[in-house]
Specification:
about 170 residues; mainly beta; Immunoglobulin-like; 5-stranded antiparallel beta sheet; 3-stranded antiparallel beta sheet; about 60% strand
Amino acid sequence: MKRGATDIRDDDDVSYSIATSGITATVNNTPGDADKGKITATGGTSGHIDLTVNVAGVDFGPFRILFAAETGLFVENANGTAMGTRIGNRIFWRQWGRISATANSTGTITFPVPYTNAASISVTTGGSGGGGFNDQDNYPTVTGSPTTTGQGWRNPDDTTAELSWHADGY
């Protein structure tokens, strides 16, 4: 920050304030410190910082700084596997897994990574076991609408069957 040709970032009449969303951060406001105005992010994976600079009692800003960590875009846990691709300010997740659907039962698929928008999710399935023409001899299927954390399933067959699932969304 300059006043004319003079760097005033660490002057006594300059102060900084931040508001954060999705991350944890602090701003250095120590008078005379060469790092005055430096923002340090210490937690979170994506979000924004709104920076306001006050010079001699006059606010400038807020200036929005977007923050996105390019870590954690591959997740593998007991619920399945997920791969994320950043598209703009969203992460598009492709997730998949397999469950053992016990005979004549219902349950819930739990996604490895929760989605942010249930309306964006598409779930497809495939199964093994079952077969035939009546409700008692069919593959397991998904039921209802997906939520941000999972999708219901049912197995109308009288034997345990494998249910493979695949979900896309953000």
